Amino acid sequence: FEEKIFFKVKFLGADLTSANMSKASFKDGDLSQVVAVSVNFSAADLQNTGFNGANISGCNLSTANLSGVTMSNVSAVNANLSGADFSWAFIDNTDFTGAKITGTRMRGAKLTAVKGIKLKKKEG
């Protein structure tokens, strides 16, 4: 699936474990309830995609575009989110324990009941 383009695709409940989705586009898709453990989503375009109830533990989401995503009841334990863009995302009841978040952007994002990360406002 590397560099593939999926528009408004629905992978509801699919098992994508260890798939290579780097640089793929899932814009406006629905990945709710997927099992995506250790998937490579690096540099993927996941803008406005739903991840409700998904297990994305151990995923590589580095430099991915996750702006406008919805994540509710998600396990993102040990995920690599370095450099990912979560601008304007809605994230609720999500576990980021052990996740790498260096350089992650969260401008305008709404986070509630998030576990495992401490965010601080950028100065300036």
TrEMBL record:
InterPro entries: 5peptide_repeat. It comes from the Bacteria. Keywords: Repeat. Pfam families: Pentapeptide_4. This is Pentapeptide repeat-containing protein. It comes from Desulfomonile tiedjei.
